[in-house]
Amino acid sequence: MIENKALSMNIESRLSFEEFRKEVLNDYRLACESREVSLLARREVLTGKAKFGIFGDGKEVAQVAMSKYFKPGDFRSGYYRDQTVAFATGIATPEQYFSQLYADPDQQHDPFSGGRQMNSHFATPNLDQDGNWLNLMEMKNSAADMAPTAGQMPRAVGLAYASKMFREVEALHDLKHLTDNGNEICFATIGDASTSEGHFWETMNAAGVLQVPLAVFVWDDGYGISVPRKYQTTKNSISVALEGFRKADGTNGFDIYNVKGWDYAGMCEVFEAAIRKIRETHIPALFHVEEITQPQGHSTSGSHERYKSKERLSWEKEFDCNLKMRSWIMENALCDEETLVEIEANAKTTAQDARKAAWEKYITPIKQELQRFVALATPLTEVSGANAELVAQQVRELQANREPQRRDILKAAATILVRHRQLKADPAIQALQQYYDQYLREEKENYNSYLHATGANSVLNVPEVPVEYNDDATTLNGYEVLNKYFDQLITNNPKVFAFGEDVGKIGDVNQAFAGLQQKHGPLRITDTGIRELTIMGQGIGMALRGLRPIAEIQYLDYVLYGLQPLSDDVASLQYRTKGIQHCPIIVRTRGHRLEGIWHSGSPMGMIINSLRGMNVCVPRNMVQAAGMYNTLLQANEPALVIESLNGYRLKEKLPSNLETFTVPLGVPEVLKEGTDVTLVTYGSMTRIVEEAMVTLEELGISCELIDVQTLLPFDIHHSIVQSLKKTNRIAFIDEDVPGGGTAYMFQQVMEQQGGYRWLDVAPRTLAAQAHRPAYGSDGDYFSKPNTEDVVKMVMEMMEE
């Protein structure tokens, strides 16, 4: 007889085994479904239904194993082959995957990008339209994917660093919708070849220094497109190359684990213990997942048979992770052959059903629009004077197109309309014109919206609060105004963090944070290494998680080091997620005039053309800068604030409402009214122009001086053209190279605002020289616009 206790243990054991068996078979199901999705998706591209495809085949088992330990509240900063991660975590479904492959602009179908990104670019929302942070702890979160290799790495530092702040800063502990005491991990994934990028190395170094809960998975399939690993990585192994970073007792660094991408049981065993350690200790780790295969090659743009040997291709077939997992299941008697065959057949059906449903949802509204077009165009063949054959041809070609696109319909309608302009009064033509205009308007909204945030998240909706001064207002150096501002800000807003090179102990190179680290602690105001790229990433990740980082680039000249994540990631984020993900990072820097080539930069043309989607603020003094920070902190949009480098020791009055007044973005300020000529500038140049205006006034010339204040957005109310209507003369002045910032302002006023209609003389631009500014005071004088240049230009305009 079996005793009750033994019987109970036996039942529990059987139940435990049954649960284990179900979990394994479910994991195998996910791997099979993902493989079938890859096979079908490739076919859809090659048959022309989709434009391009890049797939995660060969990585299914490793990604399923990783995803088992991905919890609500965690973040993914991933690689565009992570489809299995998305399926296993529930972030995406196969149908949504196909909708994105087809570029379906309906956000109900492609919730990640509304058809704006190619397949396997996933994103989850973090803010609602009312400016409220969602409960990220109830979600499995994904930072929006992007294609630049290793571009996902810098922000991974910040996503993990946020957990460190949530754990160690007591004032954040009540933010239960954003954190569980900092127990969240950032899962970063990357292909082995992309570890050659500097982004990867800077990220790993920063993570090792900061000691943050970052789990980096390197999918190693032996190639970077066609280039073998031995030509990519020192010692032919990223884990071996990184050995010096391995954490040992009494040191920082990170743990390193090596696993085989086809070894389901081995990966689960390693991942479970390792990820638990990361979550508990905040020690980062690198997982080198080796012996990954790539059954369909790199992408749909070519075949891997062109560059892989027969031996390699044979090995890849033998070590296919799905086949290996299947064999392991059979060897361990977890189910019979019939059950596996059924799982595999169901996986095919699931993928096919997802593809079919996604395609029908994509093509149906297009075909409905095509029918509307045909119904409106066909009657034109009966209109007197119409080109019946042209109309009939457009209709026939569209009806013969089995896979029409929106552009095909619009091009056909435009072709008919442009060739029947003489009949524009005809009711049939008017009906087609009305249809065309409406359809074009709707589709432009689908494809051209959400470059910036809307509603409560938009900087444009922050109420203006005028600056106020007491009668006995104290006069301080500009840096002292900022110092008092940042002191109040850090005191009253626990979500604000400031960090960068020399920001902490010495209070930044211009002393705006002097003494504040000692007062508020090194977690709130932090020194970093010289690593602009990951300083930006640190800020991006923190901002994605609900904190308000002020990330500093010490001098504007060095923005190039951090430009890639700002341009590819931050500036495009609102657009490429169709408004569902927000990153309200504030990048603080200083520029314009000082001394020498790399400390006097003003590359505004480069900045405004690469950062569309961000706000670019160019305050002329530190009070204005403080007001702009206040505005930005009341919205949820990213910004670059460029303080005037030579303005920190100029005297300014201290406002009485320093922490509450706001400077509206996109609204120029008229600093002095005049009647003869409008001078448009910003930043340090305002002082040069003011000096020139003293001389011009003595010469009887009345100038109106306008400080644009922000370049992005630029003069949203078209106030500059109102000044031009009065003066009929205008000049744009800045310190960028010729054709840079001045050309941008010129285009905005002359073209967008129609300013050319009000000109009496040719408009002017006055910029710096085409070369970098030379060193020294004389170098500044001859390299950048000076007072005499402004006077000469205005006098020439008056004499013209």
TrEMBL record:
- Residues folding into a coiled coil are none
The Transketolase-like pyrimidine-binding domain covers: 476-650
Please name the source species.
Answer: Chitinophaga fulva
The EC code for this enzyme is 1.2.4.4
Q: Which UniProt keywords apply?
A: Oxidoreductase, Thiamine pyrophosphate
Q: Does the keyword Oxidoreductase apply?
A: yes
* Gene Ontology BP annotations: branched-chain amino acid catabolic process; response to nutrient
The answer on whether this UniProt entry bears the keyword Oxidoreductase reads yes
Q: Which InterPro entries match?
A: DH_E1, THDP-binding, Transketo_C/PFOR_II, Transketolase-like_Pyr-bd, Transketolase_C
Cofactor field: thiamine diphosphate
Q: Which SUPFAM superfamilies match?
A: Thiamin diphosphate-binding fold (THDP-binding), TK C-terminal domain-like
Q: What does this protein do?
A: E1 component of the 2-oxoglutarate dehydrogenase (OGDH) complex which catalyzes the decarboxylation of 2-oxoglutarate, the first step in the conversion of 2-oxoglutarate to succinyl-CoA and CO(2).
Q: Which GO terms describe its molecular function?
A: branched-chain 2-oxo acid dehydrogenase activity
Q: Which SMART domains match?
A: Transket_pyr
- This one is known as 3-methyl-2-oxobutanoate dehydrogenase (2-methylpropanoyl-transferring)
Write down the top EC class of this protein.
Answer: oxidoreductase
Gene3D superfamilies on file: 3.40.50.920, 3.40.50.970
